[in-house]
Amino acid sequence: MTLTGLTNHLWQSTLFAVLGGLLTLTMRQERARVRYWVWLAASVKFLVPFEWLSVMGSRFASVSGIAIIRGHRFYEVIEVVAGRTSDMVTPDFAGRASIVAGVWCLGIVAVVGWWCVRWRSISRTIRGAVRLQQGREVEILRRVELKLGVRRPIEIMQSADATEPGVFGIAVPVLLWPEGISNDLADAELEAILTHEVRHIQRRDNLTAGLQMMVEALFWFHPLVWWLGGRLVAERERACDEDVLELGNESRAYAAGILKVCEFCLRTPLPCISGVSGGELKKRMVWIMTNRAVQKLGFGKKLMMGMVLFASVAGPVAVGLVHASESPGESEARNVTVASSDQGAEHASVQASKQEMMGLIVKKVNPQYPEAARKAHIQGEVVLRATIGTKGNVENLQVVSGPAELTPAAVEAVKQWKYRPYRKDGRAVEVETDITVNFTLAE
Predict the structure, then answer these.
(1) How many structural domains is the chain composed of?
(2) What is the pLDDT of residues 167-208, one digit of tens each?
(3) What is the mean pLDDT of residues 25-44?
(4) Which of 21, 12, 77 is CA-nearest to residue 50?
(5) Are residues 59 and 44 in contact, defined by beta-carbon separation less than 8 angstroms?
(6) Distance (Å, whole) CA 246 – CA 292
(7) For the chain, first and last CA: distance in Å?
(8) For 212-281, what is the HEC assignment?
(9) What whole-number distance in Å separates Cα of residue 289 and Cα of residue 286?
């Protein structure tokens, strides 16, 4: 992915997360698990560029032979969101790509390294723990498993370290239980805490937390990514709280059990260790004690979520289908023929697709079809010759050929184009360029 593509991906993912946040505002009375999945989708979007979906659409069209007719307004909007245009100015990183990539990689190494240190610490705790095969904790845990329909018994490991109860592992999760904490918990409190942990395992919260950690490592520089991590922790704990109370556990005993755990233990060392004291603890205590009823997701909101999800996937795929099914004339319009020369130096002619040119063009404005030419059914291509300056500006525009009715629109559009400076031997040089703009009326 080029730096321009990465910039497009970042603002698209940010916009997707903002829309997800607005969606959750309409679901404050619904179950926490619904909001949790909305936030998770917003986080995972950082791992899935819209551009990939567009490429998938193009390949599907080429294999299946499906053709889609392009609609002017709708197409332009979706194409911008899908990252298939360069109509917005992006930062000029030309010549500094290696520095940006180096800083990015250093950030990834620092984040992953810090997490590895913490992971090794909790791993040592697990290795030093003793498996409980009998006792009060095991008896209550098996009763909870029976109530929740757990088929595979969960191992419970007792540790001498003062860490909080939590679930460790993804493929074969184990329950880490601090030694001595059961002495402070009544049976009802112990059962509620164990129910909370078993629900973490059933929901596979450690797996989704691992995905979020991957997003945070790759996009460590984006504040929204870390904020999303906080929202996911808060909603996953709230979701387990709802399940604990719905299973008949008494709210006062549950709240008292959580407070005793907090008094006894330290905080969870990693976000991928699902504990009981995470999230917004004060708000959780208020909600648990009031035990307010939550609403089921209504048909209207289900439909709204489905439409948002469908548009997010189908929009970029549709752009790919349109690009793959363009007519030959339209395809010419979406490619630029660049003839470069440097004051008598060796002449080079390059035919590049728009995808390949995205690393050079940072702003491209499409021409408006003149109304008079449209009514007269005038079509054709306008060839312009321009000089791309050392700062990437379009200069010395001249008309080489093309219908007189179409040339003013082509000139007006191309004057607004912006390129990254063309570099030769490490320095920016002026380049003479032929640009073909194709005007084609839809049949």
Answers:
(1) 3
(2) 988 888 999 998 888 888 999 999 999 999 999 999 999 999
(3) 89
(4) 12
(5) no
(6) 11
(7) 36
(8) HHHHHHHCCCCHHHHHHHHHHHHHHHHHHHHHHHHCCCCHHHHHHHHHHHHHHCCCCCCCCCEECCCCCH
(9) 5
Residue 329 pLDDT > 50 = no
| 363 shares a domain with 266 | no
Query: Do 127 and 261 lie in a common domain?
Result: yes
Do 108 and 216 fall within a single domain?
Answer: yes
C-alpha–C-alpha distance, residues 299 and 265, integer Å: 43
Separation between Cα atoms, residue 431 and residue 329, nearest integer Å: 26
| Shared-domain flag, residues 248 and 314 | no
Q: Which range of residues forms the domain containing residue 172?
A: 101-290
Task: Report d(CA 207, CA 155) in Å as an integer.
Answer: 18
Among 438, 308, 294, residue whose Cα is nearest residue 15: 308
If asked whether residues 272 and 352 sit together in one domain, one would say: no
Helix (H) / strand (E) containing 400: strand 394-401
How far is residue 417's CA from residue 381's CA, in Å, rounded to a whole number?
A: 18
Tell me, yes or no, whether 140 and 285 share the same domain: yes
Contact 89, 418 (CB under 8 A): yes
Alpha-carbon distance of 383 to 407, in angstroms, equals: 9
- CATH code of the domain covering residue 394: 3.30.2420.10
428 and 349 both lie in a single domain: yes
- Asked if residues 191 and 141 have their Cβ atoms less than 8 Å apart, the reply is no
What pLDDT shows up at residue 355? 46
Whether 116 and 252 share a structural domain:
yes
pTM exceeds cut of 0.85: no
Sign of CA dihedral 312, 317, 320, 326: negative
The closest alpha carbon to 222, from 4, 6, 2, belongs to 6
Answer positive or negative: Cα dihedral of 142, 148, 151, 156.
negative
| Half-sphere CA count of 86, side-chain side, radius 13 A | 25
Q: Report the amino acid identity of residue 326.
A: E
246-269 confidence digits (pLDDT tens): 998 999 999 999 888 888 875 445
